[in-house]
Amino acid sequence: MTEDGMLIIEARRFRTQKANREDAIKRLIELVRKAAIEPEIRYKTKPTHGSKLRRLAAKHHHTEIKQSRRSDIGDG
User: Fold this and answer.
1) Secondary structure of 34-63 in the HEC alphabet?
2) What's the Cα-to-Cα distance from 61 to each of 49, 68, 72, rounded to whole Å?
3) Helices (H) and strands (E) in the chain — how many of each?
4) Rounded-to-integer distance, Cα 38 and Cα 36, Å
5) With 80 as the cut, is the pLDDT of residue 40 above it?
C-alpha cells in the first residue's frame, strides 16, 4: 500500500508480461478472498482444575529431582 491508499502488486515471476499480469490478478483475487473472511472470535478460557493440579504435580516432581541432586555435605 502506498501513502495514497493504492495497492501495488509486483509480478516478475514469469518471462512474459501476459503471464506476469495474470499472476498479479490471481494474487489480487486471493488477497480479496482472504480479506473477506471474518476472523473467528477467540474467547478467553480459564485452566481447568485438573490441568492446574497436573501443572503443580509436575512442578513438585521437578523440584524433587533437583533436590535429590544436591549434596548434603555443604559447599565443598
Assistant:
1) HHHCCCCCCCCCCCCHHHHHHHHHHHHHHH
2) 18, 11, 20
3) 2, 0
4) 6
5) yes
Q: Closest Cα partner for 23 from 33, 13, 8, 34?
A: 13
Three-state DSSP state, 4:
coil
**Angle at CA of residue 38, ends 26 and 45, nearest 5°:** 140
How much is the mean pLDDT over the chain?
A: 89
Residue where the block lists cell 501513502 = 3
In whole angstroms, what is the distance from residue 64 CA to residue 72 CA? 14
- CB atoms inside a 10 Å sphere around CB 27: 14
Structure confidence at residue 36 (pLDDT): 92
